[in-house]
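pipeline/complex-builder :: batch 7 item 3
reading input block
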Amino acid sequence: MSEHDAAVIVVGGGHAGVEAALAAARLGAETVLVTGDPARVATLACNPSIGGSAKGQLVREIDALGGEMARTIDATSLHARFLNESKGPSVRALRALADKPAYVRASAAALAAQPGLTIVTGMADDLIVAGGAVRGIRLDDGRVLRAPNVVLATGTFLGGKTFRGDEVRAEGRFGEPPAVGLSGTLRRLGFPVARLKTGTPPRIDRATVDYGAMDEQRPSVSPLTFSFDSAPEFAGPQRSCWVVCTNDETHRIVRENLHRSPLYGLDLIRGIGPRYCPSIEDKVVKFAHNPTHQIFIEPEGWDEATLYVGGFSTSLPAEVQLAMLRTLPGLGDVRMMRAGYAVEYDFVTPTELDGSLETRRVAGLFHCGQLNGTSGYEEAAAQGLVAGINAARRAAGREPLRLGRETSYIGVLIDDLVTRGVDEPYRMLTSRAEHRVVLRHDNADLRLTPVGRDLGLVDDRRWASFVARRDALDAAGASARRAKVGGTTIGTAVMPPGSTVADVLRRPDVTFGDVAAALPNVEPRIGERLEIEIKMAGYVDRQRTAIARAAVDEAVRIPEGFDYYGIRALSLEARDKLSRIRPRTLGAAGRVPGITPADLAVLSVMLHRRAAPELAVQA
Ligand SMILES: Cc1cc2nc3c(=O)[nH]c(=O)nc-3n(C[C@H](O)[C@H](O)[C@H](O)COP(=O)(O)OP(=O)(O)OC[C@H]3O[C@@H](n4cnc5c(N)ncnc54)[C@H](O)[C@@H]3O)c2cc1C
């Protein structure tokens, strides 16, 4: 037996791997994190931001369950702002820019401080599998590590290739070697492996920019934090971002150099790129009717010399990138510090996974992060947390955690991956969550901290602070329903006789600040949450009815190994797809693409007949 034998091995120290390793160790599983370079854990390989629309909700949910990402960004944030403030609480989301080196250092410190977690430097090259179950990994230097649970969190590194003009390199990320052996292993084991692509923009020297020619975007004047437990204070000096627009000249240079693009003229990249984060080449070609595109110039750290050029991802040759940059307002004399590039990599079709993120093909093997075809730090971290939790639970002989779509964006993300699969990099969007009125940024702790506590991830201190918050919110609600404000003037309107604070807060034009004097014992943070709860109550009630309806089909379990081919009344397409994806419930079967209401009705009758033959015959 090797000295590194463990209950759980996590391969890859990116955003997914860090959460997975911490969660597994926190749940008491002896854990080993194997990663190429421990000095680069949780690297923000592209944009410096965490959160934003729908992704911000994921970060809050990770925090509520007892994960790490929210605390790391709070400790390193240099610019935070709420997005979609005017669009209502269900889509409101926090976004913050990190000091990139500080973010990596904070993640490394969290790993180093975690009891029960050992970090091993190295590249996993092969999986050891016997009897349909994983037994460990083999590193490229020949070392063997044995464990009955292995979490793969290898990001963009499997078969990674980077592209800039006609330069093609075998790399998982710029300057870092790819993981080659593992792709072959996964294929050999029968996993469907395909290619995706993403890209990053150039970085520029902040001393060579004329800020007067750009629009400034200031951060919030009061500190904003993701974690329910972070003190509301600034992590360090706050920095502005800057906005500029592309112009005819920028687009002309792109068009005239398309023959030098690995995506277009050179036709070197086959993998599909992220729809919601297209390269500047794609923007100019596919959205040719748009005369201009917004570009965001963002700091990468308190002391970093570089600025990130958001929205300008490109794999054109470096000299073309510089020429394009110099067409932008304020960048006429800019110095390019690092050119952008594209990366193409292998991913494994996530319909191979159960909702616990364990593969069905190999027991004890979990996949998470970009390996599952997602894009983004937050999506990776959310999956890493669930995979780490479930690897540790499996090690302890416990039932896995499976989060439903009605509980969380994390539940939506995983259900989408395992029932629908991906054919382009998957990014979380609010529109993917049918229950988004319930899955708000403000209430992630109410939804998930009790789950995290049951799992054992929320310690006594965090639990006590949650209970105090929940009690304060309940008490504030009771006070708001009691306190009368009839006859007083709020804004320009006189309140009708008998009105309570709760009645008044229902009005869209009234904020907690307007009624705070009537609730002297309610602190502003709780008051703001109360206001959202009261304003959303009607929508939430309607959504709860929809959730209850959906729960009926979610409660109908489909037995493991169910023989769809034996049901002749199902369409052939349905039989094929359901046999491949093997949904766990009737509800999940209905979400498999291509399954019609008629297929579902047939399946429902068959499942009910199995469960209670006499009832189904009458039906
Ligand atoms: C060039 C580029 C551009 C990107 N652009 C965007 C974007 O525009 N928008 C967006 O949302 N996301 C973008 N991303 C993606 C974002 O970086 C990822 O979504 C996120 O980092 C994925 O996290 P992860 O944990 O799955 O993997 P990663 O962060 O990639 O981490 C993988 C880790 O695994 C380690 N590793 C890999 N293989 C092995 C092995 N065999 N053995 C040991 N260790 C291994 C690596 O060293 C690394 O530490 C981009 C990434 C790159 C590289």
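note: The first strand starts at residue 8 and ends at 11.
queue -> next item
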